[in-house]
């Protein structure tokens, strides 16, 4: 069974950059869309960024202009870079993948999820 393994995160200073990585353990989702969601305490999970297998990218409204998502289809794996982080970016970040090659900003359309990784932005 395919798994998503996340890395990166931790504690970062406001204004700095952070990088999150996610790698699928199998080629099952090699042609599927992958992306990142996040959930802050007391809030619903929200879409951060996604990338199709053809490298088409989409970003959530709250991070647009500060994020870059990239993908290596050979593994497959994705990497998210977020610049100028803010305390409100503090959340658990989840990697997700779906068998469809198209990005969707709703979590219900994703088939598998990573365990989540904590990002804390200190002011």
Outline the secondary-structure elements.
Blueprint: E1 4-8, E2 10-13, E3 18-24, E4 34-39, E5 46-51, E6 57-59, E7 67-72, E8 77-82, E9 91-97, E10 112-113, E11 117-122
Parallel strand pairs: 2-11
Antiparallel strand pairs: 1-3, 3-8, 4-5, 4-9, 5-6, 7-8, 9-10, 9-11
Give an overview in words:
Strands 2, 4, 5, 6, 9, 10 and 11 form a seven-stranded mixed beta sheet that branches. A four-stranded antiparallel beta sheet has the order 1-3-8-7, with no helix packed on it. Strand 7 and strand 8 form a beta hairpin. It is built from no helices and eleven strands. It has 123 residues and is an all-beta fold.
Fill in the keyword field for this structure.
123 residues; mainly beta; seven-stranded mixed β-sheet; four-stranded antiparallel β-sheet; 11 strands; 47% strand; globular
Please sum up the structure shown.
With 123 residues, the protein is mainly beta.
Low-pLDDT regions: none
Sheet with the most strands? Answer: 7 strands, mixed
Radius of gyration, in Å, reads 13 Å
User: Class by helix and strand content?
Assistant: mainly beta
Q: What oligomeric state is this?
A: single chain
Helix content: under 10%
Number of strands: 11
Order of helices and strands: EEEEEEEEEEE
Proportion of residues in extended strands = over 45%
What would the average pLDDT be, to the nearest integer? Answer: 95
End-to-end span in angstroms? 40 Å
Please tally the helical runs, counting DSSP H or I stretches of 4 or more residues. 0
